[in-house]
Design brief:
Elements lengths: L4 H8 L3 E5 L10 H13 L4 E5 L1 H7 L6 E4 L13 H10 L3 E5 L11 H11 L3 E5 L3 H10 L3 E3 L17 H10 L4 E4 L5 H9 L4 E4 L1 H4 L1 H14 L2
Helix pairs in contact: 2-3
Length: 229
């Protein structure tokens, strides 16, 4: 579907975005599996789906909810849709919203974030979500033209400590200093975490591991049981 910013925000307002991703080499690392999980999440009330990889994006492009697509590639610090080429490919695959690294770090193709967003919009009618790691990232991403700001990289870009749960402090900071809608993402492991992110000022909440990654969920229970032995 082709969404305007207002249409996308209307669908995402106070909504749950479910991130359907599996790591390379895992049993569930198959676009068909991810598409089935995405459909199950939509049946449960997910307002949007976030998926990684071109085949996965194509597999869910027929869903009647916004699809946030990204492409993890490369071995540099910037690997979430790291270049303009990647961003255009994600859009071509059918993503309504293209998620890209929204930090202030150098991008592999040498383009700035603002240049990447501007040139993507010259060729594709898509929205852009900036995956940020700090308040400074969010401020810069908003100035660069991002439609949605995310806390995805908090604790991973070297600017903020990795919190046990969602980075509530960062959510509040971005909410106070930026006007673009904020999607809380990262280490949201329970409904209580999701509610806390909303109360802190998140426009929408994205949950991945706690819903769609059985390997990690299983390990949580195993560790809890082992600790009682």
């Amino acid at each position: 579907m082709t969404l305007t910013l207002d249409e996308a925000l209307s669908r995402l307002d106070a909504g749950l975005v479910v991130s359907c991703q599996a790591y390379p080499g895992e049993p569930m690392r198959d676009p068909r599996t991810m598409a089935q999980i995405a459909r199950a999440a939509v049946a449960g009330g997910a307002a949007a789906i976030r998926v990684q990889g071109l085949d996965d994006i194509r597999a869910v492009s027929d869903l009647d909810v916004p699809v946030i697509g990204l492409w993890k590639d490369g071995d540099s610090d910037v690997f979430i849709t790291p270049t303009l080429l990647h961003a255009r490919a994600v859009a071509d695959a059918g993503a309504d919203i293209v998620a890209i690294d929204g930090t202030r770090r150098a991008r592999p193709d040498g383009l700035s974030l603002a240049e990447t967003i501007a040139q993507l919009r010259q060729s594709h009618d898509v929205l852009v979500m900036a995956d940020c790691g700090s308040l400074d990232d969010a401020v810069a991403a908003e100035a660069a033209g991002a439609d949605i700001l995310g806390t995805t990289l908090s604790g991973y870009s070297g600017e903020r400590p990795k919190t046990i749960g969602p980075d509530i402090e960062l959510i509040g900071q971005i909410r106070e200093h930026c006007r673009r809608p904020l999607m809380a993402e990262g280490r949201i492991h329970s409904p209580a975490d999701a509610a806390a992110a909303r109360r802190a000022g998140a426009f929408a909440v994205c949950v991945g591991t706690a819903i769609t990654h059985p390997t990690t969920i299983t390990s949580w229970f195993v560790e809890a049981i082992t600790e009682t032995s």
